[in-house]
C-alpha cells in the first residue's frame, strides 16, 4: 500500500454525507478507508479492514436498543461523529455514528492494517483504540476534525468483502445471527476469521 501524504489525506476526507446512509452500507464501504488520528503532532494511520454494523434501536445487539442514555446519546446524534465507549472497564471501542439523527445507528471499527506510526497490535477494537491513542475524550468527536477523521482509500484497492455474524452478541437472540460483520478477505489483521 502506498503511504499517502498529509495533503492527499486532507483532500480525501470522507464527507458527512458518507455517514448519513444505511449503516450496513457504510460498514462495508469503510473497508479500505484510512483512519487518521493526530497525536502530539504525529499522524497515526491505519487502513480499516474489519467493521460491524449496529443498525438502530430495533437491533437488540446495539447499545441504542436500551434507548437514549448518557452513554448512548452520541449514537442518536448527527452522523459522522465518534461514539467511544469503555468495555470491561479497560478497553475503549470506536464507533462511527451513521444515518440521520434519532436512529441510534453506528459502525464499530474492529481492526486496522497499520499504515503509519501505529505502535502495537490493531486486530480487535480495544487494541485498535490503544494503538491509535483513542479513549473516552474522543466520544462525540466530529469526524470532520483535523485531529480524528477517516479518509477514502485508494480506488485501485477495492477489497473482496466477507460477511459474517457479529462477535460477542449472543445475548441478542436472532440479531446475533445477522451477517453484519464485514472484513477484507485474506487480510492478516482481521481480529477473527
From TrEMBL:
The keyword Transferase does not apply. One of its GO terms (biological process) is base-excision repair. The keyword Hydrolase applies. Keywords: DNA damage, DNA repair, Hydrolase. GO terms for molecular function: alkylbase DNA N-glycosylase activity; DNA binding. InterPro entries: Formyl_transferase-like_C_sf, MPG, MPG_sf. Its EC number is 3.2.2.-. Belongs to the DNA glycosylase MPG family. HAMAP family: 3MGH. NCBIfam families: 3mg (TIGR00567). This is Putative 3-methyladenine DNA glycosylase.
Amino acid at each position: 500500500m502506498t503511504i499517502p501524504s498529509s495533503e492527499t489525506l486532507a483532500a480525501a476526507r470522507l464527507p458527512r454525507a458518507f455517514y448519513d446512509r444505511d449503516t450496513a452500507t457504510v460498514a462495508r464501504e469503510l473497508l479500505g478507508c484510512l483512519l487518521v488520528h493526530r497525536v502530539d503532532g504525529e499522524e497515526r494511520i491505519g487502513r480499516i479492514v474489519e467493521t460491524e454494523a449496529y443498525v438502530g434501536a430495533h437491533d437488540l445487539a446495539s447499545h441504542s436498543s436500551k434507548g437514549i442514555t448518557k452513554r448512548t446519546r452520541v449514537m442518536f446524534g448527527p452522523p459522522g461523529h465518534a461514539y467511544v465507549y469503555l468495555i470491561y472497564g479497560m478497553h475503549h471501542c470506536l464507533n462511527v455514528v451513521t444515518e440521520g439523527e434519532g436512529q441510534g445507528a453506528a459502525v464499530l471499527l474492529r481492526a486496522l492494517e497499520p499504515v503509519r506510526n501505529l505502535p502495537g497490535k490493531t486486530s480487535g477494537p480495544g487494541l485498535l483504540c490503544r494503538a491509535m491513542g483513542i479513549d473516552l475524550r474522543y466520544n462525540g468527536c466530529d469526524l470532520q476534525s483535523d485531529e480524528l477523521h477517516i479518509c477514502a482509500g485508494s480506488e485501485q484497492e477495492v477489497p473482496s468483502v466477507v460477511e459474517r455474524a457479529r462477535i460477542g452478541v449472543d445475548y441478542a437472540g436472532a440479531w446475533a445471527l445477522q451477517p453484519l460483520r464485514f472484513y477484507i478477505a485474506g487480510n492478516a489483521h482481521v481480529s477473527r476469521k
